[in-house]
Amino acid sequence: MRIISIGLVGLSFGGCAFEENLRQGDLTGKVRIPLEALESFQLIDPDGTPIVDGGFTLDEDGQPVLDITDQMGLLGPVYVGAFPSVEDGHFDYPHPEMGPILDADKPGDTYPYGGTTVGRFDYACYEQLRCKVVTGRHSDYGDIIDFFSDVVQEPIIAPDGTEVTSGSTFQEHCFTTEYVTSNDELSFIDDDPEEDVLPYFKPYFKLNSEGTHYVADVTIPHALVVDGMELWGWVDMPSARYNFSTCNESEGAYHYRYTEQYYKGSSYPDLLNFPGLYVDEGDWVVEDPYVVDSADNEFVIDFTFKFEG
Where are the domains of the chain? Predict the structure, then answer.
């Protein structure tokens, strides 16, 4: 019995010292989007008249009104993945290498080693806002109200047909319809955006000190780390009518409240496997992918290529 006990102790100590040599790891770094992404962005009204252009909202006479280069709501989700390699020739922009094309209407699978997003779509309590609001882009309810009223120029309309003009009204509607009691239970706003959540980061962009790029910290969690793999991705920029190609309004959780019945919207599940289905006109794409030689090195990914469609 004593010999067995000693053996078990030895095994226990040996287990603590055993190196598993797992190939998974967290990759940490920064993503950078050029200021030009918003300076060159355009929105139009239903008649095709520009209402945002050249970095400003426009009045009825086409004169600049509001500088939109600090309106982070115009930056959609940023998708970042780790891939075996990135190639030219598949599409009109650099794209990860693909596996066999098994369907004439679908590109080959990219088989990513891992990936993440900087910001994701979140249902913001009103049917009108399905697939329109991204986490990390708005600080509070009032900011969202002003954004849709002054920038997108489509004020938020409540189910009773009235315009939502106050943050307290917005909050009350969310608490009532989503059955929550605090802002902490809602992802699309954040009472404490500077809160430390290491080893991960909140999806906030800030303009760098040079005024040239929007920069965010990001962690790609639990990626399969392969020497020489390449980090690539794209920014889903809104269309000229403020719609996003990577979100489906006909999916997601279902909202059922009296006469209101609709899906809340959800991102497509295969975005990194088949990015060629979703990269759309106006999106910003990584042209020079970051080559990983160690999971310990922090990366910088620049989105420098604007896809013109």
Answer: 25-122+195-306
